[in-house]
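[scheduler] slot 2 assigned
[scheduler] job type: sequence-to-structure, two independent chains
[scheduler] chain ordering preserved from manifest
[runner] begin chain α
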Amino acid sequence: MNDPRDAILFYDGECGLCQRSVQFLLRRDRGEVLYFAPIQGVTAQQYLSAHLRTALSSVIYLRPTTDGQPAKTLLRSDAVLCALIDMHTAWRYPAYLARCIPLTWRDAIYQWIANNRDRLWRRQTCLRPNPKQSKRLLP
């Protein structure tokens, strides 16, 4: 069995949209499947290559495998949608549907949002997790 911490969603810790997204996922992930870590943090240094850590416009999801292999690294729209699917909540249904859209289209939409996030959302929004959620926020 893989360490459950292999299900880590890495995000830009200085991005207001990213932090709001983490708050959204924390509130809905009642099965406590996902862990979260900023790309700028020490957990990212342990799990991600230097090249991936410079990709601040991309969400990165380490998705555990069931066959004992190392976690699979997913980027951009695949990362977001697979994290929603893995939470096993009602959000997995729209995520399954969205995965029917070609990856190039999904990632183009994702990239447009990433390129405009600083204009659309304030930076440096503080995460305010409850004590139970705090254990799922990695440094």
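[runner] end chain α
[runner] begin chain β
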Amino acid sequence: MAALAACRRLLDLRPELELCVRSRAVTPSSCRAKGAGGARHAPPYRRLVSCRQGSSDEGNAYAAKNNAMPSPDEQFLRLSLEEGEGDGTVSGISESLLHDVKKSAIELLAVRAFTVSELRKKLCGKNYSVDTVDSVIADFKSRGMLNDSYYAESFSRSRWQSSTWGPRRIKQALRQKGVPEAEVDQATRSVFQDVHNDEEQMTHGFSKASMDHLFAQASKQWQRGGSLPLDKRRARIVRWLQYRGFNWAVTNSIVRKLEARHPPP
């Protein structure tokens, strides 16, 4: 029934195709003679055959102006028609199954970026075999559609700029997403450090630009607690910094600088 529905949709898209449903093996001559004979008894199983009317003026005109790649819907419908005629394999995996897994993967990636580990879990959760999923993931990685290094750096930079997350919290989040440790370290270094080993970077592991950005964000939090006693104000900013994943050395340095720049009244 699903194949028949797909054929009907294809007939709407491609009027030059005539879908012939016969009770036995159909030859091109029998398709052209459709309607000439009398009624026949339908067997238990029907075979679906597409007959291209090459002599049709409408079909020739359509083919002449449609040399471009068919649309995704048309490709999917064409695959549905061809499944009944035979199904090839790639490395022992059905081509139609590979097509289904790739289609699911593209739909997921169209919504948001995924790490390799996340996408594998999503596809295996759809009951696709591990071998088929790994084959699709290897293909996507070779074409640059999946890249954990790029994902880790983009994620780190986004969390640092928008939410002021520190290295510790970013690393924890990336590990949970299945990013390898080497790529996690590389991503955080690219965000928080630079090629110049200035004093701040040698002391705290942060470049001067990163420390200036953190101090600017911490200053906003410090100003909001202006009505609080100094000890509560200090405890509040310490919690804010440590919750975001900054170590005690960075936290202590920021608190001291805040107290020096914004002394209590």
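[runner] end chain β
[qc] chain β: The domain at 208-261 is CATH 1.10.10 (Arc Repressor Mutant, subunit A).
[scheduler] slot 2 released
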